[in-house]
Amino acid sequence: MSHSHSRLAPFHLAFPVDNLEEARRFYGQLMGCEEGRSSDEWIDFNFYGHQIVAHLAPANSRDAATNHVDGHGVPVPHFGLVLEMDAWEALAQKLRDAGTQFVMEPTVRFKGKPGEQATMFLRDPAGNALEFKAFADRGQLFAR
Fold it and tell me: Could you tell me which residue ranges the VOC domain spans (predicted)?
């Protein structure tokens, strides 16, 4: 089933955090996400046009399961975005400047092969894993 719409539908993702103020600092200040509605138990963020919701759920702390992809341990589960290369490079620099501890340092994988991509992994303060990637050719996003 092919869904190649000209405009992407905004994605909605709710995920657990153990501290809303730390989530607000990470997603709001560091990542630059505009805050939407909030309560004592959750905060909506505009994540590059997508709606993500940090829900206070201290018991649901992340586990550290990883799968190996191209010789790297990739955290599972994880979420993130595919950015344009210049936006990816700017974000990587911003995160480096902020002293971010990466799970996987900003790097280019599958160099010269279909699906060549820049990627980086990091965790938010609650341990949720995020991946940001960019493709030399965005048309390669679903290359096999």
Answer: 9-135
Domain with 6 in it: 1-59
Global pTM reads 0.83
The stretches of 1-144 forming alpha helices (DSSP H) are 20-23, 85-97
Residue from 82, 74, 84, 85 nearest 123 by CA: 74
Same domain? For 73 and 134 the reply is yes
Each residue's pLDDT tens digit, 68-125:
565 567 788 999 999 998 999 999 999 999 999 999 999 988 888 877 889 999 999 9
